[in-house]
Amino acid sequence: MKISSSIFPIISIFILLSISSVTPSDSDDSDDFDDFFQCLPKQSDSSIPITDAILTPNNSSFQYIYQLRANNLRTFLSATSRPVAIITARHPSHAQAAVICAKRHDFQLRIRSGGHDYEGLSYTSDVPFVILDMFNLNSIDIDMSTETAWVQAGATTGELYYRIAEKSNVHGFPSGVCTTLGIGGHFSGGGYGFLIRKYGLSIDNVIDAQLIDANGRILNRKSMGEDVFWAIRGGGTTSFGIILSWRIKLVRVPPRVTVFTVQRTLEQGATELAYRWQQVAPKLPKDLFIRLQPEPINNGGNNKTVRVSFIGHFLGQADGLLRLMNVSFPELGLTRNDCLQMSWVESTLYWAGFSNGSSIDVLLDRVAVNKVFAKEKSDYYKAVIPKQGLETLWQVLMDIENIFVQMNPYGGRMEEISDLETAFAHRAGNLFKVLYGIQWSESEGGVNATARYVELSRRLYNAMAPYASSNPREAFINYRDLDIGSNESDETDFEDAKEYGAKYFRNNFIRLADVKAKIDPKNFFKNEQSIPPLPSH
């Protein structure tokens, strides 16, 4: 996500939390609590003691680790409890033990890789729970002879890009723009980035996986079966088990690529260009991806306008890009001076918002430093937004101010893959996907500010309803949004799940529920937007 720090205040990672830890209040609870911790060493590899990986609220580093990989500070305001423990797994058996013992002693398990869940479901719950933190399981094993790699769940997108670049300057992988995303969760919801039109989603290039099921078994593609392998690619893995690692197929990229950013304000014809972009961007050759990103700006007093950025990535050199743009989108007026040529791995820095010339070593920074209060929502568009609709969008942006919108074109490879190929169903027929995000600072207040900004995000979402997909109004699971429907922390009502399930997974929801019934019939793996087992008839 490329966000200007001049627009949104930066706040410290450390904040004062008004939530309390869940500690046993009677003897029965205390027995369960103690039994859980005594269970863990018995179920894990003794050569790598799990006791060294367990943090409780009594540990001095507990609060630091809890917050370190919790990237949306808003979620703490609504949290009623902290976890009874954090298991910072250092060996696959630690994750297996967490499943077996949490299940045996009736603790809910939340799985966290990078901590980028927009609603914080990977590290909050309203019932006694344990966080299984996968961050230390971050190995990346690349085999250039087969152009494949095994990537553990705790590795970040930045680490993956860096390790590929160590081996080759003509290989890459299609996944997120943000470089601190945990691979485990990012891939499980689909995983997309600026290679989406050329190579599809991350999951479209996954060829195997290791999954821990509700019985603590480690399964691969063959042993889990094709139905489960289908479900974990785009269906949100934490409904089905715990991803240990993904096996991916690397993709080919040229030695040099070209990136650009062209900005136009409303006074410079941005509305006409945005209208034209909708018609052009989804139909461009696969090698070219152009994101449209409008943001409100204030030139002083009441002199507000909207500046629209056209951010492009081309798998080729500048001369070829200019020839293509002169034919397909001459209205943008792209010039040679707008273009920057660089290696593919350097282009990942460009998209992440690092300054030109930054060392690729920044890709190894695994934790997002600047935390924010935020609320995000998503939409899919199957028809061009009329100019009147764009003007509505501009007006709401100027009214709200602290908000950003990203419009990402589809077409290309996404048109070619069936919506039944994986659990990810948003394929052909979509022109673009949109992220709406609003952010605010700690200085603006706590609960009251949160309520106000969340309501503003809903105002924008409602304003765009006439133009977005409908029946259902589709949403992207990696842009988690509890507004579209949810369950309680410890319950998964099927009728409630159908509401958000249809929006996230369209017609694939029922098949996902059927798979859930087979691999996790007692619904051990659950959260507020998980997939329930399909009821038996």
TrEMBL record:
Keyword set includes Plastid: no
Cell compartments where the protein resides: Secreted, Cell wall
Cofactor: FAD
SUPFAM superfamilies: FAD-binding/transporter-associated domain-like
Domain FAD-binding PCMH-type: 79-253
Molecular functions per Gene Ontology: FAD binding; oxidoreductase activity
Keywords on record: Cell wall, Disulfide bond, FAD, Flavoprotein, Glycoprotein, Nucleotide-binding, Oxidoreductase, Secreted, Signal
Highest taxon of source: Eukaryota
Signal sequence, start to end: 1-27
Chief place of localization: secreted
Family designation: Belongs to the oxygen-dependent FAD-linked oxidoreductase family.
PANTHER family according to UniProt: OS08G0158400 PROTEIN
Protein name, entry field: FAD-binding PCMH-type domain-containing protein
Biological source species: Gossypium mustelinum
